[in-house]
Write a structure and sequence with these properties.
With 675 residues, the protein is of the alpha+beta class. The chain has four domains: 37-94 and 156-310, 2-Layer Sandwich (Heat Shock Protein 90); 328-398, Helicase, Ruva Protein, domain 3 (Orthogonal Bundle), CATH 1.10.8; 425-552, 2-Layer Sandwich (Ribosomal Protein S5, domain 2), CATH 3.30.230; 570-673, no CATH class. Helices cover 42% and strands 17% of the residues. The protein has 22 helices and 16 strands. The strands form three sheets. It has an eight-stranded mixed β-sheet with strand order 5-4-3-6-2-1-7-8. It starts with a helix and ends with a helix. The model is unreliable at 1-12, 146-155 and 640-665 (pLDDT under 50).
Length: 675
């Protein structure tokens, strides 16, 4: 029985072992789905929401770019006001309905400091103060020591209210909830040049607000020819990707204001990303000088407050980018299938003509003839089989098509780029260049460049400013095509520019229907597309060629200035010497010991009568130096805005005639000075 009981009990563990792995298999087999909002909430770094500081920067950027697009869409000169208000912990708690509580168990908190740690910190501070006192006694420069802080836990996060107001198009009343509360829905989708990178815009800021504060977003909007203003307060149901509306109503618009104002409260970090946000606003003012920006940071501590106004410099706006059709060489199999589903054209000939660029009727007929006997111009495009669509895609990849034009693109323009650089950097000299439209993978692109030398708040060496579809790129600069071109492919010495000592600003703006960003953050353009790399190098070189001629003229002017300074330095000595000679000759003439010609006699009489003195002689010599330095005067006039040469006759002595030598001791020389 004992043996039997043991044998009966032995298989039980095996059964138990066989059952345990089956349970997780049943769980893994459950099919789950995620909404787009939930996906971006879990992968927020894709949209640039990596950490609280980056979240604050990206929120400002998304709201500003939406405001610019809105104003430009109605050809209105943009006026954008951005305000970041710091919210203290107690104020935030009152906003969400919490009562402040004092700590009961200090050791429970992340920033708790033990007695030993406090002793070490105090000893370190005392030592630092002692060294500071010794340095002060020796007269050395002393740095101000900041008060040490304990570790900052998640409970001590900083919160900010970000407000962005514009004078743009506004939003239709009924569309506001979906425009802000439904991810991957918007008006910017389509094949055209857009500022947005993902089509998320303020939706991602709302998701971050939902995750960090739980507070809703507030939108006020009014369109032209409306007698009311729309107000909406909402947040987002992340799991269902739907707006959760708190308030959605029409209000009276007394001031007849047109535009949009968005207000959102998020967790952020102003201290670490202050410079990035201000650099972004400054670079946006460079690339859009026709816009007016007002930036404010408001804090409880008045010394932290910041107010910067970037004034408008011009009222010339670039054209609105147009939506275009796909180029045959840039499509893939899925896109062709989607276009077939969405097209309103009935037969294959019309489909090829009207859904793609650079395919005329005759060329479409040639393409259909090349596809094979199964295709005909009149066949229904909806009846195409999967194999036939694959054949069309293969032919598109192999056939030759004209490059698309750049008419659908909207570059900033040389005029605006130059004005923006001058307005914000105040350089000593600047050159700009705008290239013609070029193509990569069937997508048109235009490269604009500007190079400046000198300026305000510009560091020595290369200062690189990158723009893609007229928005600044501030991160991941090292691998960007613009950075690599400026550092490795341009020989600055050939253009009389010192790469290490001069203050050089390199501005490159690339616009396209498809910007080939690299990485999930879409913060830089790769260096592996030869068409773009070549265009960037050519544009920068064209600017450098312009600058070289200016620099050479400046060097010549400096040399002429030095020559003039050297001549002027000897005027007093020359004046004394010449006057002494004239005085001696006048005395000889007066005593009739020596006779001179009529002209000489006249000069000597003026010397005797003291009509010619050392002072008048010094003045005439100075005028003579000015007159001799004609080239420098012409350069000065050119800088002053004179485009044509002075209408003064210039006489050049013939080489054939025998040169005349003027005796400096002769009064004739002095006489000519006074003519």
């Amino acid at each position: 029985m004992e043996t039997g009981s043991s044998s009966e009990g032995s298989p039980e563990p095996k059964k138990g072992k066989s059952k345990t792995p089956r349970k997780p298999k049943a769980k893994d087999s459950v099919l789950k789905q995620k909404s787009p909002a939930e996906f971006f909430a879990e992968n927020k770094n894709i949209a640039g929401f990596d950490n609280p500081g980056k979240c604050l920067y990206t929120t400002v950027r998304e709201l500003v770019e939406n405001s610019l697009d809105s104003a430009e869409s109605i050809s209105e000169l943009p006026v954008v006001e951005v305000t970041i208000e710091e919210i203290g912990k107690s104020k935030f708690n009152s906003m969400i309905g919490l009562v402040d509580r004092e700590r009961v168990d200090e050791a429970l908190y992340d920033d708790h400091e033990t007695a030993k740690a406090r002793e070490r910190r105090l000893a370190k501070e005392a030592k630092a103060q002692e060294i500071q006192a010794k340095n002060a006694a020796l007269g050395k420069k002393v740095k101000e020591t900041t008060a040490s802080k304990g570790m900052k836990g998640r409970g001590e996060a900083s919160f900010y209210r970000v407000t962005c107001k514009d004078n743009g198009r506004g939003m239709p009343h009924d569309d506001i909830p979906n425009m802000f509360g439904r991810v991957l829905s918007g008006t910017k989708y389509g094949l055209k040049q857009t500022r947005g990178k993902f089509g998320l815009g303020a939706k991602m800021a709302l998701i971050w607000s939902k995750m960090s504060t739980g507070l809703p977003i507030e939108i006020s909007s009014s369109m032209r020819d409306q007698d009311y203003m729309s107000f909406c307060r909402l947040d987002i149901d992340i799991h269902r990707n739907m707006p959760h509306i708190h308030v959605h109503e029409k209000r009276e618009n007394k001031d007849q204001w047109c535009g949009a104002e968005i207000q959102i409260v998020i967790e952020g970090n102003w201290t670490t990303y202050r410079s990035k946000i201000l650099h972004y606003m400054r670079q946006m003012a460079v690339i859009t000088p026709y816009a007016q920006f007002l930036f404010k940071f408001i804090s409880d501590a008045p010394e932290k407050n910041v107010t910067i106004k970037f004034a408008r410099r011009t009222d010339v706006m670039p054209p609105v980018p147009l939506e275009t059709k796909h180029h045959p060489s840039s499509v893939d199999l899925l896109l062709i299938k989607r276009l077939i589903t969405e097209t309103s054209k009935q037969n294959l000939l019309q489909f090829l003509q009207h859904e793609f660029v650079n395919i005329g009727k005759s060329y479409a007929e040639r393409l259909i003839g090349e596809m094979g006997p199964d295709f005909s111009p009149k066949m229904s495009v909806k009846s195409l089989t999967s194999q036939q669509i694959v054949r069309i895609n293969q032919l598109f990849r192999q056939a030759k098509f004209d490059d698309p034009s750049g008419d659908c693109l909207s570059p900033a323009g040389e005029y605006n780029l130059r004005l923006g650089i001058i307005k914000e950097l105040h350089p000593d000299m600047v050159a700009t260049y705008s290239g013609s439209a070029q193509v990569f993978e069937g997508h048109p692109f235009i490269v604009e460049a500007g190079v400046s030398v000198g300026g305000k708040d510009v560091k020595q060496g290369l200062n690189i400013f990158r723009f893609a579809n007229r928005i600044p790129l501030l991160f991941e600069q090292g691998a960007d095509v613009v950075t690599r071109t400026a550092l490795k492919r341009i020989n600055w010495n050939n253009y009389k520019i010192n790469q290490t000592q001069d203050k050089i600003g390199v501005f490159v703006s690339i616009v396209s229907t498809k910007i080939p960003f690299k990485g999930t953050g879409k913060e830089y353009i790769g260096d592996d597309i030869s068409e773009i790399a070549t265009a960037v190098k050519s544009a920068v070189q064209q600017c450098c060629i312009q600058l070289k001629s200016k620099i050479v003229k400046k060097i010549q002017a400096r040399e002429q200035q030095e020559r003039k300074r050297n001549l002027s330095k000897y005027i007093p000595d020359a004046t004394n010497a010449v006057y002494d000679v004239l005085k001696e000759m006048a005395q000889l003439h007066a005593s009739k010991k020596k006779r001179y010609e009529n002209e000489d006699a006249e000069i000597l009489k003026k010397v005797s009568a003291k009509l010619i003195t050392k002072e008048t002689l010094r003045q005439k010599l100075a005028e003579h130096v000015e007159k001799v330095d004609y080239e420098m005067a012409l350069e000065y006039a050119t800088h002053g805005g004179v485009s044509e040469e002075p209408k003064e006759a210039i006489y050049i002595q013939s080489l054939e005639t025998e040169p005349k030598f003027i005796d400096l001791r002769s009064p004739i020389f002095v006489f000519r000075l006074f003519q």
